[in-house]
Structures are given as C-alpha cells and as structure tokens.
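#lab-general

N.A. 3:47 PM
ok so I finally got the sequence cleaned up, no stray characters, all 112 residues accounted for. can someone with queue access submit it? mine expired

B.Y. 3:52 PM
send it over

N.A. 3:53 PM
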Amino acid sequence: MPQLIFLPHDDICPEGAAIDAEPGQTICDAALAHDIEIEHACEKSCACTTCHVIVREGFASLNESTEEEDDLLDKAWGLEPESRLSCQAVIGDQDLVIEIPKYTINQVKEHH
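B.Y. 4:20 PM
back already:
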C-alpha cells in the first residue's frame, strides 16, 4: 500500500501528513478520505484547477495525464513539470511526496 506524504500547507495541513492509499485511487480521493481537505470546486470532474498539486517524489508512478488535464494545468497557479490535478492523478504502487500549492485559482472563493 503506497504512502502519500503531504508537505506542510498553512491552511490545509499545517503539520503535513502521511497517509496510506490504495493503488487505483486518485490523490484527491485519498486525501479527502483522510480529512485532508484539498479544494475540488468542480467536484472532481476535471473542469478546474483548484485541486492542483505538485508531486515532488513518485511522479513517474502515476497514470499519464490527459490532454484535457494538461490544458487545464496550463491555467494553474505555480505550474511545475511535476504538477497534476489531484482528481485525475491515479496512485500507482510507489510512495508519493506531495506539495499543495499555497494559492489556487477559485473564482467562487476569491474575495474582490
């Protein structure tokens, strides 16, 4: 069973977290099942970028991203080569180290 290590994030998991996850589960579903409240404004339908994460270790063990996901990631804040939408990134058989970016683009939550 792979372990997901979430690096500390001021709002979502200030201490960081280490959780066990099932292969075949998405990063988002695994996080939510362990009370790590990753934003997912589109209800995990690959229609926004609020669940953007950066996979610092284990990136190659994930499923390949789709063209649709890649197009959305182009709009994500803090995009890096190891960026994925956590609702689309399916966990393989390796441990992952995950960073949740400090900011997200969420039109519903933004204060103007």
